[in-house]
């Protein structure tokens, strides 16, 4: 099982060549890489929009682009980042690649369906890209009615259609994961021996399967009103605009957990590996993922505190929102406790995991501000909300994704990334991130509304700081992009288990063979039993 | 670069309440952030790997610990919930003696009207120290009425009336923002709230060129739209008498009652078929498209002025303490 040179051996990357062998592949690992290419494209598209937004906000006057263009920029930034980058990111790339391997399976339960999911994402992405190129869309990623159905003169339908189609990609991936986890575990891989990454993706899949259809229905209703002028949401036609918000957030609040849960799974793996300890409170961490998935469906109304929903509805949603915070807190405490008396090393994935915990903590705590009714009246729809969700989605989810990419890069490609550069970029990202988003909390409390193209002068200093941070952040993201590509050719050859980790994915060679394992593994230990990895070399303490 | 600020001014009775909650939330957050960051740094340094072959002790789940760090945060969040909810609850009911203002949001401006008939665009003049209630309607999409210095915000949803209220505590000039994205010039849908000394406010009221009070204008509309052909004050028409309607329970055809509030009157004008008064034929034509939201507001105000005494003490801006000569004629004259 010990390292052998990856180049001579047959593995999933060199088993066949040619475009067709990729576009028609049923190998979950190759599909994972197809997803990787797709979402990376959207990440950079979304990033380009973000850059323009930040540059525009350097000055109080709207002077770089017109208001109309500005509105399109933040809309397309949100759409690209949320629906075509962050939602698919960890599940579709890392989950696709590693979930089957981590439970000792040869592939996902439905390999063809898996390929279809990728095509759906590409088709959905194409619709949205078309909308962006044809003229853009200006409704905000939230598509609030009646603006989106009766007033906007932009490419609402093709963007919404793109999201609709991509939603099915998400549903099918979720379905595939659920069935795989239920049916394809290797002998001895009991539920409570599964790595926490698998638990997290399982919980995420439940949300994808149960929540996304509601988004699909909402988009259909939007379509019907916009195209056939049926009164559903527009009061001028007898509809109810707040109904749209209920439907939208019934999906989109759970969707924020689609984005964060997998990342939490990654962090559990990393913390354990780089402190060589079983995750403290494994059962609590595992069940907190499921608890979040379930409770996440009960709190959507906290996005509607000032929309005119009833006083008592507001109270109930505020109350329930606090419930969902507890499982998140439990995770943070358990990760921290895992470090206690560990054997800690500071390789890049671990730096990202630390970054995740820190930034997620800030994001989560500010969620508690927003869930407090009296506070939310003031800060809702301001930059405070923007800062809150970027701390969680970019500080948290994206950090976790990058941590996971570094953690598993040797396994996926058979090459090591350059550690020095990677540590540097992790640091740059952490600093740049805080400089970008921390000032936005203050801006929000001062009252700067979100989605403003021009703003009063007194907000300028903080906006300049934020833009400065964004440029640091952009550099931070470009560095990994460069060295990852560089490493494909020049990186050190990766051993099978460079980190001394316990997961089954480290028991097979890097990169793995087409069918993942030379022989079906038999599992006889808990997920994070380091004595199994170390057994030969050291005494078990 | 403009004047740099870190904290917004407090200019309403609500502002210090919200800020106190903020301090509490900040204290809890800073405590937990330091705790987590501190623990991570401490453990990371103390337990860094010292030899390649090191294998730490296996640790078992500590159930007590799990319970402690679930229950304590839960307790704290319940404090947050209760505190936040009580602010919200208390802030939800405007006091009866509030000054009534009407606001109409439309792409991309705020139209504000005083009971005495003064109309303003993107500006609102109000006296310090008196509760002010704003009843809002939208001509098109959703807007949101946001005054950071007052810590209040309320979405203005088309097709219904929304209300917000505040008691300014400090004279000055404060930002009014539209906080809900409403299209191209959303960031231009801003204005100023001027909080004035009561005497200055009275001067301002009498100085402005009001074209008759809201209710007066409503009366003119009532005549020019020929509402009065059907609705007569002497009960001769085939239609309900609107005198003393406001605030009453109305019997509906097909059973049930509804309170005759602003929303009901607005609906009776724009969608008369939605609720039919018991004993009458559904013959009233709809006025949707014929009247704008601010005209509807004037009509509503006229119907209110037909008595009984408005619930929200909307009209008596002058009766506060200093009597004021030369104030515009109060509407209740017709009661
Ligand atoms: C820890 C528990 C959390 C609580 C109590 C919480 C609370 C809230 C509340 C009350 C709002 C509504 C704010 C408003 O619009 O006024 C909000 C907005 C938001 N939150 Fe959270 N949140 C939490 C975790 C998360 C997570 C994990 C994510 C994402 C991964 C997230 C992403 C968002 C987003 C995207 C929005 C704003 C969406 C928009 O209006 O465009 N939140 N959060
Ligand atoms: Cu939410
Ligand atoms: Cu607006």
3D architecture notes:
The complex is a heterodimer of chains A (541) and B (335). Chain A has 541 residues and is mainly α. Chain A has a single domain (28-534), classed as Cytochrome c oxidase-like, subunit I domain (Cytochrome C Oxidase, Chain A, Up-down Bundle). Chain A has 16 helices and no strands. In chain A, helix 3 runs antiparallel to helix 7, helix 4 packs antiparallel against helix 6 and helix 8 packs antiparallel against helix 11. The radius of gyration of chain A is 23 Å and the shape is globular. Chain A starts with 18 loop residues before the first helix and ends in a 7-residue tail after the last helix. Mean pLDDT of chain A is 92; it is low at 1-7 and 536-541. Chain B is an alpha+beta fold. Chain B has 2 domains: 1-48 and 94-211, Immunoglobulin-like (Sandwich), CATH 2.60.40.420; 214-305, Cytochrome Bc1 Complex, Chain D, domain 2 (Orthogonal Bundle), CATH 1.10.760. In chain B, 32% of the residues lie in helices and 19% in strands. Chain B has 7 helices and 12 strands. Chain B has helices at 14-46, 63-90, 198-207, 214-224, 227-230, 262-270, 293-305, and strands at residues 99-106, 109-114, 119-121, 123-127, 132-138, 143-147, 152-156, 162-166, 172-178, 191-196, 249-251, 257-259. In chain B, the strands form 3 sheets. Chain B has a 5-stranded mixed β-sheet with strand order 3-2-1-5-8, with helices on one face. In chain B, strand 11 and strand 12 form a beta hairpin. Chain B starts with 13 loop residues before the first helix and ends in a 30-residue tail after the last helix. The structure holds protoporphyrin IX containing FE and copper (II) ion (2 copies). One copper (II) ion (CU) binds next to loops of chain B.
